[in-house]
Amino acid sequence: MLLSMKWIVVVLFIFPSLVLSQALFPSKPIRLVTPFEAGGTVDVIGRSVVNVINKRGVLNIFVDNKPGANAMIGSVAVAKAQPDGYTILNVSPSIIINTLVSKTVPYDTLKDFSPIGVLGIGSGYLLVVRKDLAVNSVQELIAMSKAASHPLTYGTPGVGNALHLATENFAAKAGVQLLHIPFKGSAGALNAIVASQVDVMVLSPATVLPYKDNGQVKVLAFTGSSRGKDFSSTPVMKEAGLEDCVIKGTWVGWFAPKGTPSDIISKLSAEIKIALKDPQLKDSLNEGGFDADGRSPAEFTNFIKNEQDRYAEIVKRLDLQIN
Fold this sequence. Notes:
Elements: H1 2-14, H2 16-24, E1 30-34, H3 41-56, E2 61-65, H4 72-79, E3 87-91, H5 94-101, H6 109-112, E4 113-122, E5 126-130, H7 138-147, E6 152-156, H8 162-174, E7 178-182, H9 186-194, E8 200-203, H10 205-213, E9 217-222, E10 251-257, H11 262-275, H12 279-287, E11 290-292, H13 297-318
Parallel strand pairs: 1-2, 1-3, 6-7
Antiparallel strand pairs: 3-10, 4-10, 4-11, 5-8, 5-9
Helix pairs in contact: 3-11, 5-13
């Protein structure tokens, strides 16, 4: 008995921070880093889930927006953080796409992060144009693009993100050239098209629907395989005259730094699953074109591997290597 007690004391002496952090987790607020500007799709969905989690009182999470370099600034900050569960990342497929379009990304998605869970997955995007652009259909947009002396412009939250790839995919399917204008986040890009500073955008429904309803942008089509529940009057691409142009939507997920204890990952994942059962949150996600997800960390890891393959094929097909 004395020998056992001695070894317990030794373990506590050598690994006090590890033992206490796991035993007491959470003993302080958790920082959720969103590597985009406030107000964009990823930020809104992340905050919505945080609000539900915080109401339960088990965790206390606050959002820290660290935009820049297509989510790399915030992502790198989390990758380098202590793997103790108190710094986690709220991010989109940018965490994967960055590594595919650039050779200088200072992280490896699976080697430097531990997947926690998926908040929601989008069924598609809305193709929108500025309110004063003289087109009212996809075919009219294609005709204008082909006839223009200079390429029409489109905005995105940055180079190499899911919206960038989705818009380039649309342009390739339509046989047109569009000029890319990158911003620091979805909010900045959306403000630009509302102010008629860019011509075209592909956006998640959750972001754009309020502006559509107010007549601040024109919505031409939905890139999903079927019409959305809350925008049933909007045709899918095939109905709009563009065959073979189904572009699935983005997803929003949480990651922790690699090395975060598995029991902490499990606890965070469990809180996501509980939050996503909230009826109001589920309705809010659905209204924005997202389905609540909540898959396990292991399932998310396999999902990431499949997403890497899927986006690698798109990047190669569109020749989007940056350097």
